[in-house]
Amino acid sequence: MELHELNELAMTARANEWADQEHANGWCWYTGEERIAPYLWNPRTGTRNTVEAMLLKAHQLGIEKTKAYDALRRELQTVDGVRFAPGMPQFLEENGCVFLNTFRSMEDAVSDIYGEVEEIEVEPFMEFINRLTMNDHDREWLLCWMAHMIQKPQERPSVHPLFRSQHGIGKNVLVEHVLNRLLAGHTSTNSLRQINSEHSESVANNLLVFVDESKAKGLNVYLQLKSILASKFATISPKYVREYQQQIYARFMFADNTEGRAFTIEQDDRRIYVMEYVIHELDKQETQEFIRDFLAWWPHGWADVYCYLKQYDISAWNPFDCPMTPAKRDYLDMCTDQLENLIAKYQADTQRMTITEHSWNSFINTQGFSYEESENYRWTKLHLNRELSFRRKLEDVGFREKNASKRINGRQRRKKAWILTSHGQPSEYDLIEREDSRILRESEEAIPEDALPESQIYTV
Questions:
Q1: Who contacts 193 (Cβ-Cβ below 8 Å, separation ≥6)?
Q2: Mean pLDDT across the chain, nearest whole number?
Q3: Cβ atoms of 269 and 343 closer than 8 Å
Q4: Which of 278, 342, 336 is nearest to 133 (CA)?
Q5: Backbone angles phi, psi at 425, to 5 degrees
Q6: Main-chain dihedrals φ then ψ at residue 423, nearest 5 degrees
Q7: Are 134 and 303 in contact (CB under 8 A)?
Q8: SS3 state of residue 425
Q9: For labelling, which of 100, 131, 192, 358 has a CA lying 20 to 30 Å from the CA of 291?
Q10: What angle in degrees, to the nearest 10, is found between the helix axes of 3-24 and 65-75?
Q11: pLDDT digits (tens, 9 = 90+) for 411-454
């Protein structure tokens, strides 16, 4: 064999060896973005490189660019997209496409110490959990919920916890330090608005989505979240990539620093586990001192905690059952108010599809309020007091403001009304002249006109 042929083989072998090493380092070809030419991507570090940049590295090692390029094409896996799929192989094939599974586990990192871990060996962790909960039931539920993420990441619960506590109790430490390490970084902190963002991929690519400061008025936020809290699949719309359906595994954890209502949930809710409001064991300073000591222990103790949770008994814990705790009963009571109850009672008592100023005021007249109490629920008063959110509460139950036609004393009149909608379409108007006249007479008898302020006139 000629010398130049030997040199050629040696150079090819060196290029292949270099490409093999880059493959071992995590590099692959990525073709999954429609508007961008294929590029080199390292999912372990999140690094992107152009082909020219990678060939420059090869050239600096004395490898010809042509041979380096051929070696990269041969040795590196071509990936058409990514999927987050716990319990599945690193590369997934679907309809002729290859997807990189971005799920990672800490199991390999703790394999050298794998075995029985007693509770006494993770005492600082158990003390931390005790401080995050106010009763044994919440403590056991939280431990099982965490253990389930490690033992069965591929099984998504339909129940998600709501933490409410005083400031500085350690909720962020639980997510950003403890769970982020135990779940190999598969956690994301978001706001309620970000979760519902068109391009949000947090739900698709994580085991835990932490929603901090979960404060919202009305049922709208809950209704938007309702389907995704229990669904197995979601439509993902990344930028520059066509939307696609993906199975999701993310658990949600909601947190707020108020003892009251964070966001409204339905009375028959089966998706939110409400934990008892947590207060400092002594005071905020003492809690911060404990957390400082705990975080100093954590880098050395996390592997033991992982093994402890990996073997924790969750056989009696049901990820699809939402217990009715005393804290949840209290929370549900906070999710109703007098005005919301009156709107519901108006619908039930009158069986009407519309609410007008007159029909609402007439209804209030029949509710047994004193004159002073009834004044607080008059139509005009409710619309002027923005803090009561009367318009929003009407919208929450399906009413929309419309202009309606009605015959009054033989003449066609236009008047504003709130119309109950069905799937976005207005339902049949029920502005009934005769019935309105009867209610008007009864209301005038119940409260004589001369007893009302001059500004309060009941007309249709």
A1: none
A2: 85
A3: no
A4: 278
A5: -105, 135
A6: 55, 40
A7: no
A8: strand
A9: 192
A10: 50
A11: 666 667 788 775 445 454 555 444 444 544 555 454 444 443 43
